[in-house]
Design brief:
Length: 111
């Protein structure tokens, strides 16, 4: 089994665009064809395809072409990299806020 690594910078950069986030949100419901994904957006198909290429290069999505229809699928694995990073940040800030809370309570008790 091949273990893949995901670059959090590439993933976050791909998700920095609202169009790409909307595509990811749509794909979280289930696979969709490129034309179905592009329908809600008022942009030319080549411009929309550039968004899909960025999502695909970040490995957030993968596509499969059957006949003339290209279907997009969400790849949940890169999100685990972000989830791990966010969990570390959350834990760090909770510790800092608890320390600040303790300090303020001690300071208030001294007044």
């Amino acid at each position: 089994m091949v273990k893949r690594t995901y670059n959090i910078d590439v993933v976050l950069q791909a998700l920095s665009d609202p169009t790409r986030r909307q595509v990811v949100e749509r794909l979280s419901i289930g696979p969709a064809s490129v034309s179905d994904l592009a329908a809600p957006f008022s942009m030319a198909m080549p411009s929309f395809m550039q968004h899909l290429e960025i999502l695909e290069s970040s490995q957030l999505i993968y596509t499969e072409k059957v006949g003339r229809v290209r279907t997009c699928y969400l790849n949940p694995n890169p999100f685990s990299v972000m989830e791990s990073w966010l969990q570390v940040q959350k834990s760090l800030w909770e510790t800092r806020l608890n320390q600040l809370d303790s300090f303020l309570l001690k300071t208030k008790g001294k007044i």
